[in-house]
Amino acid sequence: MWALVVNDKPWVTLLCTPEKLDYLALGFLAGEGLISSLEDVATLEISDGVAGAGNAIMVGLCDGNKQLPSQRVVTSGCSGGVTFDLGEKLHPLNSHQVITPQQIYKLMQAMQRGTVEYRRTRGLHSAALANQESVLALAEDIGRHNALDKIWGECLAREIKTRNRLLLTSGRISSEMLRKAIKMRTPIVVSRTAPTDLSVQVARRLNVTIIGYVRGKRMRVYSGRQRVNASEVPTRVER
């Protein structure tokens, strides 16, 4: 467990895999609307519990008087995820991005090849940001929300554009996961498993493409069918 301390105030405790903790903190802060770029962060330090101080990720924001949200919502995350923002004011995505099933299969395979710790333990989730041709950032964590936050944080740190990209995940697409994708402006979300009914409703309302059950040469499109070009591909795409 790692305490996230913001502007010297203990805010939330994260149950996570202890890699890319700086990215995790950045992505979590971005998801909760506290930062929009690395320029909003003055300092970031990681304390690994030396001298009994406890594990902590300490972030100093440029705005030292930033009000931290206090009304938390426990999410459906594998590690007991938490959020302070349900994204009720999000706007529909205006994107004409198109992808083929062949590209989706290729990108999912690339993500799976990069999941070193999953192959070793069989107990982690993975997430990746990609364009139509290749994976741009990849992370693993015990929680699928954490893996996504690590992706977001890495993109902020490395100045990788997230708008009009694809978000890949090994886990269930919940409404909280979808909210993060919308804030990242990624119009296509792909998973090996299923979305929740609520996430499909939100995706249809906000113009997001959800693709689930990507297995072998099969996949299922739950929303945003117009972004999947399967006209010349001998594959099975279910609606």
Top keywords for this entry?
seven-stranded mixed beta sheet; single chain; 26% helix; 239 residues; 13 strands; 6 helices; 2 domains; Ubiquitin-like (UB roll); Cytidine Deaminase, domain 2; alpha/beta
Please characterize this protein's 3D structure.
This protein has 239 residues and is α/β, with parallel strands linked by helices. The protein has two domains: 2-83, Ubiquitin-like (UB roll) (Roll), CATH 3.10.20.10; 101-238, Cytidine Deaminase, domain 2 (3-Layer(aba) Sandwich), CATH 3.40.140.10. Helix content is 26%, strand content 28%. The strands form three sheets. The protein has a seven-stranded mixed beta sheet, with helices on both faces. Helix 1 crosses helix 4 and helix 5 runs parallel beside helix 6 (197-205). The longest helix has 15 residues, at 144-158.
